[in-house]
Amino acid sequence: MDNSTLVDALLEMAYALEFLDDNPFKAKAYVSAARSLSEIATPIEELIDTGGISHIEGIGKTIAATLKAWVKDHDFSAIKELQARLPNGFDELIKVPGLGMKRLKVLHKELNITTLDGLLEAINTGRLSSVKGFSDKSIAKLRGSVQTILDYRGWFLLDTSWDWAATFVSLLKDCGGKVQVSGVCRRSMEIISAIDLLLEEGPEMHDALVQRITSMPDMQLVHDGSVLVATCPGKPPIRIHTVSQAFVVPALFITTGSDAHVDLVNRHGAGRSVRVSHEGVFKDGVHVPVRDEAEIYDLFGMRYLPPEVREGRPIEMDLALSSNAPEFIRQEDLKGLIHVHSTYSDGRATLTDMVQGVYERGYSWIGISDHSKSAYYALGLSIKDLKRQFEEIDELCRIFPSMTIFKGIESDILPDGSLDYPQTVLEHFDFVIASIHSHMDMDRASMTQRIIKAIRNPFTTILGHPTGRVLLARRPYEVDMGVVLAEAAGHGVMVELNANPLRLDLDWRLMPDFTSKGGRVVIAPDAHSVSGLDDMRYGLAIARKGLLLTDSCMNTFSAREAMEAFKTRWS
Question: What DSSP assignment string belongs to 381-436?
Fold first, then answer.
């Protein structure tokens, strides 16, 4: 089990204990342990082996013993006992915004609500109106929240999917299997309904695999034809395809690319008498063995396209057939990152810790951008706070002489389109990220004009999380993104690709047209902790999916080039 999976399990323990009215201090202890573990890069198994787990703040003897039971002994009795006492639909009920554990317990006690469907039924029949604290307005809002979650039922975020896939890859390798991730998970879709794994056939693999998987808590295993499907509540289903060694590469190609992408490739190959299918690669009707996917593309007369790109867009073929197309953006191309919060606002790490974290990850510059004063809910900075932060940044520049630290702000776009802080304050920042955090229910025309006004503000450098979406929780606000992106490109305002897996906003589908018009994107972790800096990997995957090239991405700029870009906005 990787650290992320263990964090989820600790939080599940905490939520269960809180709901069941067990010792409240015990529930808080599990939350504290989860928070500490989320900040640690070292695998927890290594810390258990070395004894280092006892030195982690927030992890006492009891929780350390629980972690050891999970990781070393595969003993999940502690969590299973709690799960057995919870309502069947508890994992979905706790996702409902605005419900909270206190209200959830009331609903369970007074109306015996145990599932999301039961909650919606209570809303629609009027039973919820009889419960103290639920007004007509709050019930109407709750109905929308419940319906949204129901609409997203069966879908999972990219980080959850990658972590769960990694857990299974490790498990299968422990059983001696040769396995690769495929399907939409390999293509890095922002939301995923199932994870496909290709497992190379091996002797006595099946029995060892079944025994290992079924030892995991709440795991069920069924056969869907030739595919082995492993399911676990709250996790994406794992579909294990067993393939003979000779057909692994063609199967990886077919199951990774979308149907539309594979069809485009085969249609192009018809003129060369080449086709690819689950049965292999054929030229002039003769089977051609291949060692990797690059050889498949080569047989079709194409350059290799990375998995993220293979969605079936005509532009993919243009890139694959071009002899001088630029390379897709890579991690090693990134020189700096921006949109980093600290304890000055709602971050969980100090400025020093965040700068140190960026330095240790090999970047040469960082852009600090805590929340502006109107974001009172996120401890937005007063003028006095800004002065203190600027002074600390100046000191950090002396401590980290090889790092460039830019002074920025995430300024709220107010309802009328103006930015938080007067001009006399905004002019002191190196950059300004203009973002919407309130009044998201405006009509399409009003919201579009609100954002356009912010873009036209001479102090706006970057448009933050431009559609306002929170994946699997909140839909984008009503806005004409075509108009907004054209305006941003025309005024030299960068658009953020927010790398937080809850956002991944700008949508990758909008990137090619935006960058073709001269627009530039900045991949930003929106990090509120040191570990949050690593969300860049999700942003990078989405950037590649959006066909982002190095010259259209500000993260590839040197610190000097970044400062020049801030000053000119490419105008």
Answer: BPHHHHHHHHHHHHHHHHHSTT-EEEEEEEEEB-TTSPBSS-HHHHTT-SEEEEE-
CA distance 545 to 184: 12
Is 308 in a helix, a strand, or coil? Answer: helix
Residue 466 burial class via C-beta count within 10 angstroms: exposed 0-12, middle 13-18, buried 19 and up: buried
C-beta neighbour count of 145 within 10 angstroms: 17
Say whether both 373 and 501 belong to one domain. yes
Q: What is the pLDDT of residues 146-182, one digit of tens each?
A: 988 888 989 999 999 999 999 999 989 988 889 999 9
Per-residue pLDDT of 484-541, as tens digits, reads: 999 999 999 999 999 999 999 999 999 999 999 999 999 999 999 998 999 999 999 9
Separation of alpha carbons 187 and 193, rounded Å: 13
Among 321, 341, 364, where does a domain finish?
321
pTM value is 0.86
Distance from chain centroid for Cα 535:
7
- 472 and 550: one domain? yes
**Nearest alpha-carbon partner for 452 in 415, 482, 483:** 483
Q: Take residue 242 and report the two structure tokens written for it.
A: 């067993």
Whether 215 and 335 share a structural domain: no
CATH number at residue 105: 1.10.150.20
Q: Which two tokens stand for residue 559?
A: 């610190």
Helices (H) then strands (E): counts for the chain:
24, 17
In contact, 314 and 262? CB cutoff 8 Å: no
Distances in Å between the Cα of 24 and the Cα atoms of 13, 16, 314 are 12, 11, 57
Q: Which domain holds residue 99?
A: 90-151
- The residues that bridge with 287 in the sheet, in sequence order, are 282
CA distances from 536 to 285, 294, 331, 468, 555 (A): 44, 26, 9, 19, 11
Phi-psi region of 429 (alpha: psi -120 to 50; beta: other; left: phi over 0): beta
Q: Where are the alpha helices (DSSP H) in 112-135?
A: 116-125
Domains contained in the chain, number:
5
